[in-house]
Amino acid sequence: MAIYTRTGDQGQTSVIGGRVGKDDVRVEAYGTIDELNCFVGQARSLMEEEQYADLREQLLEIQHELFDCGSDLAFVKLSEGKYKVKAEMAERLESWIDSLQAENPQLERFILPGGSQLSSVVHVCRTVCRRAERRAVTLGRSSDINPQAVIYLNRLSDYFFALARTANTRAGIADVEYVRSKKVFRN
């Protein structure tokens, strides 16, 4: 099987239901999700098997779901019956967030991304996820999309925030508070 097709040499690419420019907002949306998936894979590769077995499993599931999300955004025409991202996926992320938060120390102020190498990469996942969400919202302004994809991306960025903190907690590294921050989180 040839990896190259030469069909995109003129700046066009195939989506589900047609062809668009490679710089089309739809391609930007699912392309950013693909970029996110790469960083999730990097984060997963930094997790030691024993200490992070539960989180490695979660990230693997998330990688599959990111493919689902990208697939849903690739539809040119609304196709509800074929959508893969469902409300239950965001609800499950919420339960994972709650579990992660139970491990983390109380938070009062904004924190700086960083700490352990794993936490730093997960913070990159968080920010790329936010960009993917923004791209999906932009796409949704001009096209019908699966609204669950936007909800999923929103919840996923929250998951990455909690996960980055848990990575530091499990490594015994304290989060660094943003010193100019007022107390913004209520416990």
Automatic annotation (TrEMBL):
Transmembrane segments: none annotated. Its EC number is 2.5.1.17. Residues 3-167 form the Cobalamin adenosyltransferase-like domain. GO terms for biological process: cobalamin biosynthetic process. Keywords: ATP-binding, Cobalamin biosynthesis, Nucleotide-binding, Transferase. Pathway: Cofactor biosynthesis; adenosylcobalamin biosynthesis; adenosylcobalamin from cob(II)yrinate a,c-diamide: step 2/7. PANTHER family: CORRINOID ADENOSYLTRANSFERASE, CORRINOID ADENOSYLTRANSFERASE MMAB. NCBIfam families: PduO_Nterm (TIGR00636). Homotrimer. This is Corrinoid adenosyltransferase. The lineage of its organism: Bacteria, Bacillati, Bacillota, Bacilli, Bacillales.
